[in-house]
Amino acid sequence: MMDEDKKFMHLALELAKRGEGWVNPNPMVGAVIVKDGEVIGVGWHRKFGEKHAEINAIEDAKDRGHDTRGATLYVTLEPCSHWGKQPPCADRIIAEGFKRVVVAMKDPHSLVAGRGIEKMQRAGIEVDVGILEEEAKKLNEIFIKYITTKIPFVSIKLALTLDGFIATESFSSQWITGDKARQKVQELRRRHMAIMVGAGTILRDNPKLNCRLPECPPKYKVILDRHGLIGEELSGGRRFRLFNDGNVIIFTENPEAFGEVNATIVEETDPERILRKLGEMGIDSVLIEGGRIACQFLSYADKFYIFYGPKLFGRGIKPFECLSVKEANEAPVLEIESIEKLGESLLVTAYPGDC
Ligand code: AOF
Ligand code: ZN
Q1: Residues with Cβ within 5 Å of ion ligand 2?
Q2: Reported pTM
């Protein structure tokens, strides 16, 4: 039974991933309905505010002419028990006559938090919780942090030479990593609701900061421009590509510099308060892509994506110069999750370690 449960839950997790980028700030959820050892319906949460995974799976089974009575439902997150934008899934599951429900993880949402499980158990359904729980928690690490703290999940992405530089002394950085690594960055952008850089990156590279994958929702573009340098350039007639498709948020100490601009201007430059503000705007995740601002947000980082291109610069700009570690054993420590080779480049994925 255990192996079967894992197999179907694994399928549910794969289905959940199809909602990546579309469901934020809600969780990615997948569901599989099994009867007599056969999959009779599948579903996933496709888009924020739309039907939940469980309902999509039930409808899929019905469309295929199956009866869900006596079936088992595998779902990657505890079915909800509250009225949100959608009705409670637990009630529908009870009404549909499921015999057993297998849940990967409890919902950390304070309005659910075990109540969905209890409700189904009280109705006589056999409920098993914790199958592939670690995988489910990793899949929804963004949702878990945001729903429990209201502060966005912060990822820091860096592209370094093998000797640790983000640019040469004259700020040349295009390119350090190759095509495959840069394609991976697009995937990271899809996963996050906002991309954040410093004004220097905008002034130098004039990036679009959008997600160019075929299936990718629009992104918030967040700029930390303490002195209002971009505003000054705009009034001088310069054009920046990232304003083309809107959704720009600028944090600055000099809001007057911006005049009439197609952006939300916020007078704030403290990293913690910036994150809080983004959370209040409903943004659950921020991918920090600028080299130098990474250091200002280092102590708030939840995850690191460090790319290494096969180059040596000898001298140049380093990413974490705002740190000054005197003793090696006093340095911040990261916990490496994985190392991947992407074409000629490497990607080290890590979490902040205990230190
Ligand atoms: C989802 N998709 O497949 C499941 C969710 O406002 P609502 O009605 O969409 O409810 C959102 C909450 O419902 C969400 O925070 C989570 O706690 C729970 N389950 N949400 O968006 C789903 N199963
Ligand atoms: Zn639901």
Answers
A1: 52, 80, 89
A2: 0.94
